[in-house]
Fold this protein.
Amino acid sequence: MKPRSAKKKAESAPEAARAPRVRLTRGGLVLSGTDEVLPLYAGSMHYWRHAPDEWGPALDAMKAMGLLLVDTYVPWGEHEVRPGELDFGERRARLDVAHFLRLVHERGLKAIVRPGPHINAELTYFGLPERIVWDRECQARTPRDNPVVLPLVPVAFPVPSYASDKFHDQTQEWFDAVGRVLSPLRHPDGPIVLVQVDNEGALYFRDGAYDQDYHPDAIRLFREFLREKYGGLKSLRAAWNDPAVTFATAEPPVRFDAEDAAGLARHLDWVESHESLLARAMERFAAGLAQAGLGELPTFHNFPLGEAATALNPARITKVLDFVGLDYYHPANPVHHAIIQRRTSELACRCEGRGVPAYGAEVGAGFPPFFAPLDEKDSLFTLAAGLAYGLRGFNLYMAVDRDRWVGAPIDVHGHPRRFADDYRALFEALTKLRFHELRRAAPVRLVVPRVLRRLARASHAFGPVTPALFNILGAGFQESCLEEDLGLGEVPTIAAEAYLRTFERALSVRGVPFAWVGGDSFESATAGARWVVCATAGGVKPELFEQMAERQRAGAVVTIGPVVPTKDGRMRDLEQPFDASGLEVEALDDAARADALVARRIEELGLPTYPVDPDDVFVSVHEDDAGVPKVAFVLNPNDTDRVAKVALGKARTLVDAVVHGRHAGQTLHPEAGAFSVAIPARTVRIFAVDPPPASDRSLPSGRR
């Protein structure tokens, strides 16, 4: 027993200083008191949308389907009766979240709670109380000081400002109240093992660079950001090319009006300040949740579709939260297959380098009625493709149907629908394969510097239409950015994207596994890479250039291009030129040159190749910690069936791991060095790989 003084000291210690109840690993969660990794195989159910007598049957159906965790929002606007008065089941039984979570615990399931403040959930006002969105002090502002209205069905409404101090104060009162209900239910006393902080924080989808936020508190934070970034007036005035500007008077731009590269710094600072604003807001929310009693658990945030075109910066967010996940709502087609590959490989490399799970925080199973329809083949393809390119965990959103939703595998009464068997068979295969312990080999990384994404936001060509929408639809910088070269001789965003896409095509044709990564997470996201390719059109931050040089000194080949940059991350002339000695500078004039370079790298570096015929079918291989291939995904995003020839070195057999459907348990043997794989339209097949004996193993490894 602890001495009285030690016990008192422990009781008064802040939660952040105590041992965590749950810790993260690459494969999922390790709960205190155990050594086993719990994979993040979760499904969403919204308790307040169901009669309490439906909770038990729905939870039973989720468990029978193979899910291990239950994900639920806790909506502020639903629980609030009036300011300062909340209902947690005292008036309406369906709001008794504590009882719902106890039912989760009784079934041996774990829980992920998402108390907002913003939750979306297809609720009017996105789950916020109506009084909050109509409070002018809480509202985000346009350049003309008007409320920023989200034109969404069923009701358009003004969105809150992530900078508003009043909004944060009101949120803390909500957190304090909900924390009193949820904190006793944290593991091991209850089922709660993860806490999501806010939701899809892309400025409420009004995320154009000049759309918002001109709230007085946001302008104050912008000026604080400038002071922290530049330190002194001399540096600020030189960057902005304005001898009169001060930190107290600096005004944000209200439209993109740069005429040359010298005019870009003010715009890039404004765009970057949005990233800082969101990270600061998440930090305040996380601190508020811990203060409310929800500490000692990992925290995360989910990025929406099109995240690469928003102000959400994963490097900044993961400085204040434990990890980030992505949302997935994609149709099964070639365009969205490519989007899933790029998004997921970037997420997976970043998470792999940090030792946290690559998590699909919302993987659509069905769709809200104001989305384009998605059928069950779309949903199953998206989940399997996400796993193929690196997800280690997922949340099926929605696992249980409800109002304002179409197509979950379990109906509102807890009855499994026909295609629930497809999910169950997939989850059984993942469990049998111990998939959460594996890694996707990706020895080649294609790097997008953060400055290019900032410049793309600033130079978005379509005004109030969010840049994220173009990203969601598969459009790139060429389709969405202003085509002004600003005296740089080329449009940096378009030149850089063309450069990386040329490499992407050359690598894909030869079956070399690769990943996209963001320059903001370069060190963690390129760990273990053998070849790093970075687009350096326009300019890059000196820190990124030094990180690339360090990666080269550590043994990787680093290719930059199309030229050695002469400007920094603000598109200002460098005081001292970059030293590119040791780096490979490749102009990459055409596709043939890229193909030749990839062929040479395969020979020089022993890169793995998994070629497929036809080349509109794709393969992704996952290895164990020893670099031995264990699982192969074969993906057909096309709307017609394919029979593909798949080369996997000297693998002896492929065994279909999903024991459901027309190919259940099928064993394939190679003929003339390749497997013949019949793969239906819009389908992913998952195979257990039987590799050759160690003495005869020539199946290349992405990590060897």
The first helix runs from residue 4 to 12. The longest strand covers residues 629-636. The chain has three domains: 4-129+165-210+297-437, 444-605, 612-696. DSSP finds 20 helices and 29 strands in the chain.
